[in-house]
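This part of the workshop introduces the protein records we will be handling. A record pairs a protein's sequence with a compact description of its fold. As an example, a complete record with its sequence and its structure tokens follows.

_____
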Amino acid sequence: MTIEITKYRSRHWAVFVDGRLLCVTVYKKGAMAVRDALLNGGSKTGQAQESAFSSSALISDSAAR
């Protein structure tokens, strides 16, 4: 799998996988995050989403009391 990050038009960044456009981001950092998620199988992103979900569940439970 070949992943390329290139400038897209004037202000955006494109992520290409095997020569096909996957997504366009506003910031280069976002394009690099997409690349990293693809290379790591999304494991870091999944962990962050799980912990964010757990935190919001805790906040909701304490607010209900």
In short: The CA atoms of residues 6 and 20 lie 12 Å apart. DSSP finds two helices and three strands in the chain.
